[in-house]
Specification:
The protein is α+β, with helices and mostly antiparallel strands and 294 residues long. It has a single domain, classed as Jelly Rolls, CATH 2.60.120. The protein has 8 helices and 11 strands. It has an 8-stranded mixed sheet, with helices on one face. Strands 8-7-10 form a 3-stranded antiparallel sheet, with no helix packed on it. A hairpin with a 5-residue loop joins β3 and β4 (74-75). α4 (176-183) runs parallel beside α8 (281-289). It binds fe (ii) ion. The site of fe (ii) ion has 5 residues, from loops.
């Protein structure tokens, strides 16, 4: 893939400090245009005592991740208490650094941000057979069947913490507007009554808006289209160990192909907190459909 196309997917940044002395509007512009920001020099030291955390034996049966919620409760864990304490502080350290980066680089985002639990993923990227809709090795934008979000943005910070030199490999896809243009015509019409029924029987946690209907339709149509998966504009990209990367995962098409041991911090923020709200999926979809969607 040529450099020009490459640079429209990923912006490489060589800063060596998580804390930014001043807001980075240039980075926000890239992020909000759907690019991935890739930092290859942000330090994250691993203490010798933490080396024993690099195993998937600490996962409780049926858990895919270990996650630390806002009250400091560790979920998905099984094992001795001392490891639980070490693991919690290991995850908390990453959360603190990710918060510092986002707060200092993008202060506008933080006015109304919601911080989701922080996760440590010790398992190799899922390789067993699973349903197409659940398969995150297929290019997709994030949208969740049970959790309507009414246009709220999903910002994610990732850290490849693999101790054995193994990269995390992603495919990154075309701009959101191109995706929306391609898939909207094939999505079934929104039905308020169907959304109401899904909410009544608790398939959804709240009423699915037309925006959520379209986002889910796009998510599913992307994953279900083999030709699109194979031949759409895309870049295969390796995040080496100690890489940190950020993207709006409701906008940037991504597929996790391989890798093991990763930290992840999700943030939710309203469209009004963006530096350029007109680049959001909500604004793009409303422009393309000529209607209000929430
Ligand atoms: Fe995803």
């Amino acid at each position: 893939m040529n450099q020009e196309l490459n640079s429209s997917f990923v912006k490489r940044i060589s800063d060596t400090s998580w804390h930014q002395p001043a807001p980075r509007l240039d980075w926000a512009q890239s992020l909000e245009a759907g690019e991935v920001l890739h930092f290859n020099g942000l330090p994250f030291a691993i203490a010798q005592s933490e080396e024993r955390l690099f195993t998937d034996n600490l996962l409780a049966p049926k858990s895919r991740n270990l996650s630390l919620d806002s009250r400091g409760v560790l979920k998905g864990f099984q094992g001795p208490e001392d490891l639980k304490v070490d693991l919690s502080s290991f995850i908390l350290r990453f959360r603190g650094l990710a918060n510092d980066l986002v707060n200092s680089a993008f202060p506008r985002y933080c006015e109304e941000i919601r911080i989701a639990p922080t996760s440590f993923r010790p398992k190799e990227v899922e390789s067993r057979k699973q349903s197409v809709r659940a398969d995150d090795r297929r290019l997709h934008v994030d949208a969740f069947p049970s959790r309507p979000n009414y246009g709220e943005r999903i910002l994610r910070v990732f850290l490849n913490i693999n101790p054995n030199g193994k990269p995390r490999v992603w495919r990154i896809g075309e701009p959101f507007e191109d995706i929306a243009n391609r898939f909207i015509p094939g999505i079934k019409k929104y039905s308020y009554w169907k959304a109401k029924a899904l909410n009544t029987i608790q398939v959804t946690k709240s009423l699915r808006s037309e925006y959520d209907h379209l986002m889910l339709g796009i998510h599913d149509a992307m994953k279900q289209n083999d030709a699109y998966q194979k031949s759409s504009p895309q870049l295969t990209y390796e995040f080496a160990p100690h890489s940190v990367w950020l993207c709006f995962s409701d906008q940037t098409a991504h597929a996790a192909m391989s890798g093991q041991f990763m930290m992840e911090q999700t943030y939710h923020l309203p469209v009004s907190s963006l530096y350029n709200p007109s680049s959001s999926p909500l604004a793009v979809l409303e422009r393309l459909t000529h209607k209000e969607l929430i």
